[in-house]
Amino acid sequence: MTEHQIILIKNSWKLLRNIKPAIIGDVFYSKLFVDMPQVVHLFKTPRELQSEKLIAMLTLIVSRLHCLDDLTKDIEQLAIRHVSYGTKPEHYKAVGNALLWTLERGLGRDWNPELKEAWSACYNHLSSTMIRAATRQLQK
Fold first, then answer.
1. What domain range is 126 assigned to?
2. How many Å apart are CA 16 and CA 107, to the nearest integer?
3. How confident is the model at residue 8 (pLDDT cuts 50, 70, 90)?
4. Which of 10, 75, 76, 139 could form a disulfide with 133 if both were Cys (CB 3.0 to 4.6 A apart)?
5. Model pLDDT, residue 68
6. Which CATH number goes with the domain that contains 33?
7. Greatest CA span in the chain, whole angstroms?
8. 121-132, pLDDT tens digit by residue?
9. Are 92 and 127 in contact (CB under 8 A)?
């Protein structure tokens, strides 16, 4: 990601920070479950708590975008935990689509192709790190 993309992501996330995590999570998980209903059973945590976890992780990642490599171990551990929940590498594309769709709805007029590209680059970096860690875990 470029410095400009990091700034775009951070600024856009500030716009969403005042929205209740349950609302963002409801939009995100509704989209994910419509697009990939076969993953619904993987989510055992109540949606409101799951939404809070999602927003907390996104907030942490966004706050550390300048030093994302420092989070690599945490991201890999997150992926390994997700393997134990039943997450498969092919699920990451649907999650990314749901995230971008949610961001687009939440940001409204502030969403544009440049911002989409920035968030896509961020998610692609994170998901590729997670998929590598998950694949290693699955091969054990």
1. 3-139
2. 7
3. very high
4. 76
5. 85
6. 1.10.490.10
7. 46
8. 999 999 999 999
9. yes
Q: What is the pLDDT of residues 39-87, one digit of tens each?
A: 999 999 999 999 999 999 999 999 999 998 888 999 999 999 999 999 9
d(CA 61, CA 67): 9
pLDDT in tens, 83-102: 999 999 999 999 999 999 99
Q: How many domains does the chain have?
A: 1
> What does R_g of the chain's alpha carbons equal in angstroms?
15
How is residue 2 written in tokens?
A: 């470029």
pTM of the model: 0.93
Token duo for residue 43: 């989510």
Token pair, residue 49, equals 């708590």
Count Cβ atoms within 10 A of the Cβ of residue 26 and give its class: 0-12 exposed, 13-18 middle, 19 or more buried.
middle
Which amino acid type is present at position 126?
Answer: L
